[in-house]
Amino acid sequence: MRLPIMLTSAIILALAACQQAEPPEPAEEAREAIAEPVVAVREAPAAEPSRFDIYAKFRLTADLDHLSDGQKQMIPLLIRASQIMDGLFWQQAYGDPEPLLAGIDDPKQRHFARMNYGPWDRLDANKPFVGSYGPKPPGARFYPEDMTKEEFEAWEQEGKDGEYSFVRRSADGGLELVPYHVAFAEPLGEAAGLLRQASELAQDPQFAHYLKLRADALLTDDFQPSDMAWMDMKNNPIELVIGPIEHYEDQLYNYRTAYEGYVLIKDLAWSERLARFAQYLPELQAGLPVSDEYKAEMPGSDADLNAYDVVYYAGDCNAGSKTIAINLPNDEEVQLAKGTRRLQLKNAMRAKYDQILVPISEVLIAEDQRRHITFDAFFGNTMFHEVAHGLGIKNTITGSGTVRQAMKEHSSALEEGKADILGLYMVQKLREKGEISEGEIMDNYVTFLAGIFRSIRFGASSAHGRANMIRFNFFEQAGAFSRDGATGAYRVNRAEFEQAIRDLSNRILTLQGNGDYDAVDAFVAEMGAISPQLQSDIDSLARAAIPVDIEFEQGVEVLGL
């Protein structure tokens, strides 16, 4: 195995343990740009100890027999680059973890802090579980904690809503931007070197080209060329998603991106099953249940759908609830030019289905409808959720900029809600065309309802959780499902369910297109609350000891490399 680059001591220790990496030491620039948090040590936990057991363990493995020796040598390099992303995410979400972790005596509590990348429970509305900590700052560490929205919005600074910079206090007490590649120069240089080494082992020229461009992007924060190259990469059996990508961690404005990394192995058989669906995107866009002006943007038809087994998660995607499908790139210009790629993470999806969704259905779904809970429906609903991110509109029709800019902190929740509901719309239309023939439509509906209960447990701090609360309340008001007071079980009412799909699709697409922040703010406030009855039903899942999410055992030794 060719590993000529010198690694930081933290990463070497992580590899020895073959677990999630300890975060690398930040560069001096990072230490100066990012103030360290105040650490509370050896305090009693604010959570019940049983809360520390909400994650079910799952080993991330995959069949590597079809890979060449060079490809197998590449995987540890990609994992190490991802481990660096893990350390950078710690810095964005909390700061240096070592004083925090060293100050927690209870090993279960300490492990829980690792799972949450800080002292706040990501699956319980970010409640602190280490004593003396207050609420998690909504802007994480992307902005100064003492910065107000009024100060930010009055700040006349080009690029202040940029995706790849920190907002910091300047020497004179004002605000200034610190680009990611400046704040994290040293660890990003190390990660870029690992990607360039991996490119030398790549058999696929497109993958080699992508790795080189992504290495450059990490050092410049110019990610569009590598995003374009990634869209052109179709045939490589190994996949890497790496860099500052998603906006979920910035709950103040949803502007800033957080570092993450996935290392994936393509499932050729499942990918073959999915390939045919991408061609229908333009047709599905044209048929959306909304006025023409809200669907005038035509998605690229060069999108693809593929299934993968994940072998490593790092950073943002590993924090709290684990991602089971990806729709990227997020760059609106790339989406309009080339579409998106949808990556279904099959092994992680299977783990959540077996260990979480099926047990939930046995508690909260009417007995005679439980036969409609199927993995194919769960996989399909998840897949079409990701496909549906490409539908609708990316730019407001009112001149308010992109939808993401106009919706601010609500953009992720609204976008996730759109994807969920339009995913079901796509299932309906493709079944009508005969393109989906497995099972029946009620499988998708009932599995979808069970999936709402699964995601609501992520809490209001999660964009997916808020989206599910909105959808649950909207569907309840529409009579799309009913609850049996005697058993506490829910059942789908098909006709009302299908009407609710159309109505909520129209509502969300219209809100996004109008770019009316106040209207969206009111909609989220009205529909985003958990009723006492629903909370009681969700609590029953905890009493039944059903896990909330998955914890991965992962690394080069787990893979046998």
Describe this structure in words.
This protein has helices at residues 9-17, 28-33, 69-93, 97-102, 107-116, 149-154, 180-183, 185-201, 205-220, 224-232, 268-274, 281-286, 332-338, 346-364, 375-388, 403-407, 411-432, 441-456, 463-477, 494-514, 517-527, 532-543; strands at residues 55-59, 120-121, 127-128, 165-169, 175-179, 238-246, 258-267, 304-315, 325-328, 341-345, 481-483, 490-492, 549-553. The chain is globular. The strands form 5 sheets. It has a 5-stranded mixed beta sheet, sandwiched between helices. Strands 1-13 form a two-stranded parallel ribbon. Strands 2-3 form a two-stranded antiparallel ribbon. It has 561 residues and is an alpha+beta fold. Mean pLDDT is 87; it is low at 1-47.
